[in-house]
């Protein structure tokens, strides 16, 4: 259905109306699909005057399920509920939902100070939210967490969300970090891809960065699957 809208066969408005009908849907797979398609639409609309309106739409569609799930696990809930919580809170946080942003910032502060360590399933949504609405201090804190991380899984988790940062000079800092020794060569693409998908500014900056550093990137990956993935993102 959304692919038909992207192809111009049916109206995007009709797709958005259908999406609104899923507001009480409890299924993770459905929300994952909605999130993916809204992400594609948001990327397209980021170059138009409708971008702020699509953010309002995201907040309206995702806030009821976000309120039902809350921030903490409920007794007897399954693995998919934890996945859904992370998906929904990340979507709301990126879209600037006030209550989600405030709670993410509070929990991030406690996490950094060691007062209350975030559970693994909440880290990505919290990280992406504070970065999206953060500043140079937020980015420096995140890079410090990356350096201190013992497990590669946590380093990768941080690398994937760094592109959420919004300011042009900080986007450049993330792109430079992508090619640094702090990032494994096979993970560089994830950092650049995160920047490309993070914002309109990030998309342009990432594309320029790839062009400017093409020789190094090409030599690094020698025409393998990572270079094709880099071009796709």
Overview of this protein structure:
This protein is an all-alpha fold. The protein has a domain at 1-97. It has helices at residues 2-6, 12-20, 28-45, 51-69, 79-94, 98-112, 120-132, 136-148, 152-161, 168-178, 188-198, 200-212, 214-221, 225-232. Helix 10 packs antiparallel against helix 11 (188-198). The two termini are 23 Å apart. The model has no long low-confidence stretch (mean pLDDT 92).
Number of strands: 0
Give the termini separation.
23 Å
The coarse silhouette is: globular
Structural category is mainly alpha
- Roughly what fraction of the amino acids lie in strands? under 5%
Number of helices: 14
Unreliable spans are none
Strand count, sense and barrel status of the largest sheet are:
none
The topology string of helices and strands comes to HHHHHHHHHHHHHH
Mean pLDDT: 92
Q: Radius of gyration, rounded?
A: 18 Å
What percent of residues adopt helix (DSSP H or I)? over 70%
Question: How do the strands and helices of this protein lay out in sequence?
Answer:
Blueprint (H helix, E strand, L loop, with lengths): L1 H5 L5 H9 L7 H18 L5 H19 L9 H16 L3 H15 L7 H13 L3 H13 L3 H10 L6 H11 L9 H11 L1 H13 L1 H8 L3 H8 L1
Quick tags:
globular, 0% strand, 233 residues, peptide binding, hydrolase, metalloaminopeptidase activity
Summarize the structure.
By secondary structure, the protein is mainly alpha-helical. The protein contains 14 helices and no strands. Helix 5 (79-94) packs across helix 6 (98-112) and helix 10 (168-178) crosses helix 12 (200-212).
């Amino acid at each position: 259905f959304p692919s038909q809208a992207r192809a111009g066969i049916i109206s995007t408005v009709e797709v958005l109306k259908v999406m609104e009908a899923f507001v009480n849907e409890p299924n993770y797979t459905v929300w994952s699909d909605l999130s993916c398609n809204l992400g594609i639409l948001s990327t397209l609309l980021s170059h138009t005057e409708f971008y702020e309106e699509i953010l309002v739409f995201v907040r309206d569609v995702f806030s009821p399920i976000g309120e039902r799930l809350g921030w903490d696990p409920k007794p007897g809930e399954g693995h998919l509920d934890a996945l859904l919580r992370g998906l929904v809170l990340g979507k709301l946080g990126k879209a600037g939902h006030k209550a989600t942003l405030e709670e993410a910032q509070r929990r991030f502060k406690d996490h950094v100070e060691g007062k209350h360590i975030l559970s693994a399933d909440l880290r990505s949504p919290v990280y992406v939210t504070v970065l999206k609405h953060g500043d140079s201090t937020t980015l420096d804190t995140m890079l410090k967490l990356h350096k201190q991380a013992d497990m590669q899984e946590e380093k990768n988790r941080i690398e994937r969300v760094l592109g959420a940062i919004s300011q042009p000079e900080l986007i450049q800092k993330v792109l430079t970090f992508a090619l640094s020794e702090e990032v494994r060569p096979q993970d560089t693409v994830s950092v650049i891809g995160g920047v490309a998908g993070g914002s309109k500014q990030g998309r342009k900056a990432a594309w320029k960065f790839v062009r400017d550093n093409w020789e190094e990137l090409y030599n690094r990956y020698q025409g393998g699957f990572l270079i094709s993935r880099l071009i796709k993102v």
